[in-house]
Specification:
The chain is an alpha+beta fold. The protein is built from twelve helices and 15 strands. Strands 11-13-12-14-15 form a five-stranded mixed beta sheet. The protein is globular and about 80 Å long.
């Protein structure tokens, strides 16, 4: 038992380099690597949780603690793992690293973060799964009418991929997706049912599903425009705090190709409408205070030619100190990146630029 008296110093992160596994992205304590049991090509479904010193593949069930991972990749017998790790790590202290690692060393299964979120899987996997899901759904007539009243055509509505949220048969949808070879782990909205462990999809609200696309046209996530609510009408499709669930991360939506001059607004549906009505490429952030993703995206947009950004937030920003503070942060961000910028304003009778442009077009006027 003397091995287990060593100080609390060695963690899962210490053995990752020994196993030849990828290092976690900067700032991440939970990330995906290819599962040695079920992945091929560029797929990544083995989740490594550095804060809990455990790993798990939601797809095939391969799981365990730090010692299990070490033993699998090195081929060292379980009873010899501790000593082998000690030698390779230069005799550093190993033993009390965490409750889960101690349980694993004692031959007990670790607590595999029962309701902890999986981090989002790669965008290619999310795109393929979401496209297949949307292909299985339809758009209700009342939702079609709502979009037509915004100025979109039936053709554009179909191209944008809007759908009505499923209200029944969500487990059947999940089964069909898996049968077609799509992955659900790490895709926000999907999770396992607590009762039978079957994969399913969130279905607690009716509304319009809105694909949120990146600058390459890939569906990163989904938003819902909820029916019959006044506040927080737009919500992310998320399965946070559900078994094997995944949280949406506030992705930036791009409507149109990257261009030298671009607009920036709030919300993907608004961006889609403005893009169709004006022809301008539109960037949409989830909110004026949700700028982290935009900050990391700007260098990519600039590398593809973006130079000037015109902001077009709803006109109530003029009277909201809260929104103005977020707008000030945005302006400084654009300035620091070397982008030129400006702000569109319009008649305050119309809250959003989409409303204003659509009204001008119906009156035969040029708006933007």
């Amino acid at each position: 038992m003397k091995d287990y008296q060593w100080a609390d110093s060695t963690r899962m992160a210490d053995i990752i380099p020994l196993l030849g596994l990828p290092s976690p992205p900067h700032g991440r304590s939970s990330y995906y690597v290819p599962c040695p049991c079920c992945d091929s090509g560029h797929k990544k479904h083995l989740n490594i949780n550095l804060s809990k010193d455990v790993f798990r593949c939601p797809r095939c069930g391969f799981s365990g603690g730090m010692f299990d991972l070490y033993g699998y990749y090195t081929g060292v017998r379980r009873e010899n793992v501790l000593e082998d790790m000690r030698k390779r790590l230069g005799n550093v202290n190993i033993g009390k690293h965490s409750d889960s690692a101690n349980a694993c060393a004692a031959g007990q299964p670790p607590d595999l973060y029962a309701h902890a979120d999986n981090p989002p899987t790669d965008v290619e996997t999310r795109d393929a799964t979401y496209r297949a899901l949307l292909g299985m759904l339809s758009l209700a007539s009342d939702h079609t009418d709502n979009l037509l009243q915004r100025g979109l055509t039936r053709e554009v509505i179909a191209q944008n991929g809007y759908r009505t949220t499923p209200v029944a048969g969500v487990k059947a949808l999940a089964r069909k997706l898996m049968a077609e070879g799509h992955y659900l782990a790490g895709v926000p909205g999907f999770f396992r049912d607590e009762n039978d462990g079957a994969w399913t999809f969130t279905h607690n609200m009716r509304g319009i599903l809105i694909p949120v696309r990146d600058h390459k046209g890939r569906v990163q996530g989904l938003q819902i425009r909820r029916d019959n609510v006044e506040k927080r009408k737009f919500r992310w499709v998320s399965s946070a705090d559900m078994p094997d669930g995944c949280r949406a991360e506030g992705w930036v939506h791009i409507a149109g190709p990257v261009r030298e001059n671009m607009l920036l607004t709030e919300g993907p549906m608004k961006a889609d409408v403005i893009h169709y009505l004006t022809g301008h490429t539109v960037i949409a952030v989830p909110g004026v205070h949700s700028l982290t993703r935009l900050e990391s995206l700007l260098p990519e947009l600039m590398a593809e030619g973006a130079k000037h950004i015109m902001t077009a937030f709803d006109m109530d920003f003029l009277a909201s100190h809260h929104v103005q503070r977020g707008y000030s942060e945005l302006v400084w961000m654009l300035h620091d990146r070397g982008l030129t910028f400006g702000t569109y304003v319009w008649h305050p009778e119309y809250k959003g630029l989409d409303d204003y442009v659509w009204q001008c077009l119906k009156q035969g006027q040029h708006a933007v």
